[in-house]
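Quick one - first record:
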Amino acid sequence: MFFWFLGTAVLSVWSVFRDPAFDYRLLLVGAVLPDLIDVPLGRAGWAHSLTLAVAVLVVAMLTTRRRSARRRLLLALPIGMLLHIVWDGAFTSAEVFWWPFSGGWGDVEVPSVARGWWNVPLEVAGLAALAWIWRTCGLSEPARRRAWLHDGRLIDVRIAPC
């Protein structure tokens, strides 16, 4: 699973915040980070727990100044991680979700691996969400693509045309 998490994370943040200064690059990293950590281990573990995402959020808050550009940038990582947990359905396994407060995580399979072939329609939905963002933000234009790679911002072309 890759596009499902990228597409749902971007679409969720885009729909809720509509913040033209939000940097989506770390959001994308956070959206796939739990699987990058836990899939090689063969089971859902600490990366699919609420504890890790909240710990990253606390570190971002404690190490940055209020209303700073660095804080705005770093907050995208735990937001992506939290959205991964939501869109993965990791909360359905209390042992994993509430680790270490639940004791241990046992032998729970990573949700995106456990779904098997159901991942195919989810990946298609994620690609559709990314295609909509691509079109809505005019990323087919090289200048907009370069700007996104430089500062991570997505600007709705219907509101702010080039």
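second record:
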Amino acid sequence: MDTRARYAAYADRIAPVSPSYAAWARSVDDDLVALLDQVPEQQRQPELLFAVARRLGADPSDPGALRAVGREARPALLTALAAATVQANDPRRLAPVVPLFAALAGTVAGPLGLVDAGAAAGLCSIPDRVTLDYRVRPAEPETGRNERSGARWPIVRMHTAPAEPSLRLTADVSGEVPAPAAHPIRIAARVALDPNPIDPAEPHAFDRLVEAVPPEATDRTALMREAARATAAVPPVRIRGTLPGDLDRALDALPDHVTPVVLTTGTLVYVPGADRQRVVDRLRDRGVHWIALERTGILSGVAATLPADLDASDPDAFATASLDGAAVAVSDPFGVRIRWLRDPNL
């Protein structure tokens, strides 16, 4: 997908939740495409460009502000974009992966040791601190209000956080929904690996986290605050580093008595293509577990385990949740609409 097509697709996807970001994406013209083409492919993500533009003073409420900053602050925008990373953890992405942690925890002796790769502030480093409810779509299609919104779908408590502060999530689900967790997830050690790790306790850290969050998404910002409080209660060891080069260092920081598991949530799209496979190969060489929620199709091994009839262009199949390289579910980009393909407990 070329740059213009990528931004057009992003505009269509984000329009229902953020008209301002959709307008910015549709405003990308030849000059901005030329600028984006000067940075590596993984640096051309819309969220990254918009975060950097806002940092340079662009107002999302002005549809022309993105083009203006491209004209008036081009050198600064190009320099910042080349070195920037998307720092907005979206804790909603835990909704598809908490059952995977529960399934894994049920098969190993003792607690887990978590490496959150691409952690930013570690807001996804707390699957054990999530109380997760699923609104389960009935197998037979319904009509009217229930079908559209899930307002009256049965709610199933999938996992209960054993301690406060915790994060409360709700997602709409269908398909081969796994059984609720029989016991709380136990994580005895956690490591946050990121090129620019953020400690939410530092001044202005939260402002940095929400740079890429659409301004209309006030509920998402509130959820991130809730996740930040839960993360502060069980802070990870923060390691500055990248994938795949610093993966071993992060794994080696875990104590010997835990079962290591690496989590990637929307991380590998920012890793150059050849290095993505090196990450997968190193995880296999180390013999550690891997839980992922990554863009559908960017990992060939995971994609090979998807149903042959899956439509990767479906917005509700934007991301694939996988356990140890095997696809178990697909979801929208935010993890709020999930279709389970198989029960991870099997």
